[in-house]
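FAQ: What does the model actually see?

It sees only this:
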Amino acid sequence: MLSVAILDMYKGEPNQGMRNIHQLVDSFALTHNVTVNKQVFDIRGANEIPNLAFDIYISSGGPGSPIDAEGWEASWKSLVEDIIAYNLVEPNKKWLFLICHSFQLMCFHFNLAVVNKRQSESFGIFPIHPTKQGKQNAIIAALPDPFYAVDSRKWQVIQPNLIALDEIGAKILAIEKQRPHVSFERATMAIEFTPEIFGTQFHPEADAKGMLHYLGEKEKKELVIQNYGLKKYNDMVESLEDPKKIALTQQLMLPVFLRNAHDKINQPIVSKK
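And it is asked to produce this:
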């Protein structure tokens, strides 16, 4: 049996993210013939915090500011600190995957980078470039350069604190696309904080089929066109129909993380004598 704590960071707002996370965990369980015990914790809505009884923790994306205090942040940070401390001394590690809002929280609360508001909201399907270290990382290595992912955020992680990252052995695995027509710094898009803690500023859980259905609804289509223009809408639909873009990212990233975690958790521990 594998136990998975899903940290719901959406604050009660309607979203595709939680459905996608459940879908990927259920698919992993079926594909690998693993019994998975899932439990959802409403972090921001009810300040529900899991204990250290779980094998894997997935902290979702969510709306709003990652730097303005709402009252639950200390509990969330304490959980992450407990996972890190546990992994330093225990052979059976705890695994944590951080998505978008959670990734920004990690970088801000542990002083690993600058987290600030973007000049304008990033919304769409964009190319992301693996770094040299990213191309050697099991979770990203199978993806092309660039790979594509859903990006939906008003905030960003930039100016990584290389000294702080080096102190914990963290590795920057992916960065934002090059934008030569603007002077803004490229955002950090994925970090391996520790061998067991991985985070992305984009949404690797997003599924093409679900997004196509979402964008196909008349009200949603009109809203996207109104806010971002017809060209952006058409570009998103075209990218969603391409099996080598977000469909590939969804198939490889979080599933590989789950597989790696499962294999390590079930690996026999050799005692040191």
